[in-house]
Amino acid sequence: MTVQNSKPSVFVRFLKVLLRLLLTLLFGIILGAALYFGFQFVYQELVIPTQQNATDLQNLNTRINQQWDLLQNKNKEFEDRLSEMESDQENTTDHISKLVADFEQISADLDAYQIQQEDLADQIQKIDQSIVDLIDQNKDLTAQNEDIISLVKDLEIEKKLQPIYQDLQLFKIMLQVNRSRLFLLQDNYGLAKQELVLVNELLNSLLLSATEEQKNEILLWDARLNLAISHLPDNLILANDDLEILWSMMANGFTSPNDIVVLENTEENDLNSTSQSSDTTSATPTPKP
Predict the structure, then answer these.
(1) CA angle 153-159-165, nearest 5°?
(2) Alpha helices in 156-287 (DSSP H)
């Protein structure tokens, strides 16, 4: 018997090819999906954690470095503070030693002060006793002083010595007048006038302590003195005569002599003698400084 080989039709072969193509495409899709999801799974589970771990390690390393630098700075600060504390401790030790020495010195000074205070207390007692004695002596001296004051008041020494003071002042004025007359004789008219000005000042000072009667007589002397000064340096003879009259008046003291010429009559006589002497031609001496 003969077997007849039956060939599939074209449609069947097309279906087979299409089926193979679909199976191949499906297998490729499944394989691609498996690779995609597998790669994504591997990336999610391995790559990303690895990168995250690397980043964390880098951050951790940075933080560790920062902490290390901070620790080094802190350590340096601690070392500096420790050095300062050691230096302060040494200074404190020296200061304490100095305080101890000062305390010992103060204790010694306090002991000496207590001894001095005891001596001072004894001296104060002696001074108090001396003060009491001085008070008693002062009372005695006050009583004696009052007695002396009353005795002086009774004696009226100032009133008794006043004429002596006036006589001494008058004697000094007379000496100045004689000095002026001496300078006139030496033709030193400048010094003579200076002496007369000094006499005028002395008369004014004498006028302050004089009585009313004495003041009148001093005013007469002063008028005669001013008359003599006015005659210098033109009428030397009249000036010398006035000084001689002044000296005679003062030589009598404060007694009023009967032979004193009145000032007005003297001035008239001086004017007459001046008119007579003006007729004679004579060289007028010049004052010398």
Answers:
(1) 135
(2) 157-185, 189-208, 212-231, 236-251, 263-277
What secondary structure does DSSP assign to 125-191, as a single string?
HHHHHHHHHHHHHHHHHHHHHHHHHHHHHHHTHHHHHHHHHHHHHHHHHHHHHHHHHHHHHTT-HHH
Q: Give the Cα separation of 267 and 227 in Å (integer).
A: 8
Residue 262 burial (C-beta neighbours within 10 Å; 0-12, 13-18, 19+): exposed
Range name among 24-38, 39-53, 270-284 with the lowest pLDDT average: 270-284
Contact 287/232 with Cβ under 8 angstroms? yes
Note the pLDDT tens digit of each residue in 187-207.
777 887 888 888 888 888 877
Q: Which domain covers residue 268, as residue numbers? A: 160-277
Contacts of 233 (CB under 8 A, 6+ apart): 189, 193, 284, 285, 286, 287
What is residue 287's predicted lDDT score, i.e. its pLDDT?
37
Which residues are within 8 A (CB) of 266 and not within 5 positions of it... i.e. 6 or more apart? 224, 227, 245
In sequence order, the 6+-apart residues with CB closer than 8 A to the CB of 67 are: none
- Cβ proximity of 264 and 220 under 8 Å: no
Q: Is residue 270 predicted with pLDDT exceeding 70? A: no
Sequence-ordered list of residues with C-beta below 8 angstroms from that of 189, at least 6 positions apart, any chain? 183, 232, 233, 236, 285, 286, 287, 288
Q: Is residue 207 situated within a structural domain?
A: yes
- Which amino acid, one-letter code, is at 191? L
When divided into structural domains, the chain yields a total of 2
Structure tokens at 21: 């193509």
Is residue 33 included in any domain, yes or no?
Answer: yes
In a domain, 3, yes or no: no
Asked whether residue 120 is assigned to any structural domain, the reply reads no
Of 98-102, 155-159, 220-224, 277-281, the one with minimum mean pLDDT is: 277-281
Whether 167 and 253 have beta carbons less than 8 Å apart is answered as yes
